[in-house]
TrEMBL record:
Coiled-coil stretches: none
Keyword Oxidoreductase: yes
Annotated organism of origin: Aquibaculum arenosum
Name of the featured protein: FAD binding domain-containing protein
PANTHER family: XANTHINE DEHYDROGENASE SUBUNIT C-RELATED (PTHR42659:SF2)
The FAD-binding PCMH-type domain, residue ranges: 1-164
UniProt cross-references to InterPro entries, sorted A to Z: CO_DH_flav_C, CO_DH_flav_C_dom_sf, Diverse_Substr_Oxidored, FAD-bd_PCMH, FAD-bd_PCMH-like_sf, FAD-bd_PCMH_sub2, Mopterin_DH_FAD-bd
Alphabetically ordered keywords of this record: FAD, Flavoprotein, Oxidoreductase
High-level lineage: Bacteria, Pseudomonadati, Pseudomonadota, Alphaproteobacteria, Rhodospirillales
Keyword Nucleotide-binding: no
Length: 272
């Protein structure tokens, strides 16, 4: 089936076309969508794209930074104001993928992808969708019911910048270095006040169909000093409430076994 491509010079124009079409998809960098086209995916017949410079902008505002959804991983790596996210973007695919793959597209990527989204989840990002009057939604809410937003366009992602850069930690676990697909990704935001962790957010990707919070780990960390005893307690509940899946990369059993090990390494600072 031929696929039609419609181009617009604004995200608003693209959003109108998407809502009028029966089976259209918004095209970001195309690293997943074009692969679907090549694989003969019949679930859409139109690709809608926008050449809107606003979707490629990065703005620093107060304690946060707002990233256009069309910003690529390579642009994240290169941008001075996004240095806290550079280690995350740097491990998404190889150079060719990073030159195309966008932050917006990563939000919709199914497991085993979504490394960048796990980091955004740990940091408590907020998304602005086209046509929502700038209201914005929490990334937790977006991920809870992500299918609902297929057909919407994410305009920007606002991310609080960690005051202490050491409070944000990230590890991608893959079997093939340096650019293998993750069998597990862990992102942790561990702000401290008077030496104790306050408001821990820990997220995994590749431990379920979409990036998710490790709430039992967060509870074990919150209010505690990040010492050996706390780290043991957090590792002991690494997979509580989480049902990892089996795929070609790893079994659910293996994911459960290694999650605690890698979480412990991340928390002790052995890996960042
Ligand atoms: C070889 C290879 C290696 C990869 N390695 C990794 C990896 O290591 N880690 C990782 O996380 N991912 C990886 N990916 C997956 C993918 O490249 C990334 O997840 C990427 O960020 C997807 O973004 P995109 O712009 O290319 O999305 P697209 O392919 O353009 O779109 C993907 C989905 O997102 C939707 N979408 C895109 N932009 C928006 C928007 N602004 N608003 C609403 N919906 C939107 C599309 O409609 C589509 O449903 C890899 C892919 C390949 C092919």
């Amino acid at each position: 089936m031929p696929v039609k491509v419609e181009s617009f010079d604004s995200l608003d124009g693209a959003a109108r076309a998407l809502s009028a079409a029966r089976s259209a998809r918004f095209l970001g960098g195309g690293t997943l969508l074009m692969r679907a086209v090549n694989d003969g995916d019949q679930s859409f017949d139109t690709l809608v794209r926008a050449v809107d410079p606003a979707s490629r902008q990065v703005r620093s505002e107060g304690d946060g930074v707002t990233i256009g959804a069309g910003v690529t991983m390579a642009e994240v790596v290169a941008h001075r104001d996004l240095s806290f996210l550079a280690p995350v973007a740097r491990v998404v695919g190889g150079p060719a993928v990073r030159n195309m793959a966008t932050v917006g597209g990563n939000l919709f990527a199914s497991s085993p992808y979504g490394d960048f989204t796990a980091a955004l989840l740990a940091l408590g990002a907020r998304l602005e969708l086209v046509g929502q009057g700038g209201r914005g939604i929490e990334i937790d809410e977006f991920l809870r019911d992500r299918e609902r937003y297929v057909g919407s366009i994410v305009r920007t992602i606002s991310v609080p910048r960690p005051r202490d850069p050491g409070a944000f930690r990230f590890a991608k676990v893959s079997r093939i270095k340096p650019k293998g697909i993750a069998l597990l990704t862990i992102a942790a935001y561990l702000p401290q006040s008077a030496g104790r962790i306050r408001g821990a957010r820990v997220a995994y990707s590749s431990m379920g169909p979409r990036p998710l919070r490790a709430t039992a780990v967060e509870r074990a960390l919150d209010g505690q000093y990040l010492d050996a005893a706390t780290i043991e307690q957090a590792a002991a509940v690494a997979c509580d409430g989480i049902e990892p899946h089996t795929d070609g990369l790893a079994s659910a059993w293996y994911r459960r076994e290694v999650a605690a090990v890698h979480l412990k390494r991340l928390l002790t600072g052995e890996r960042r």
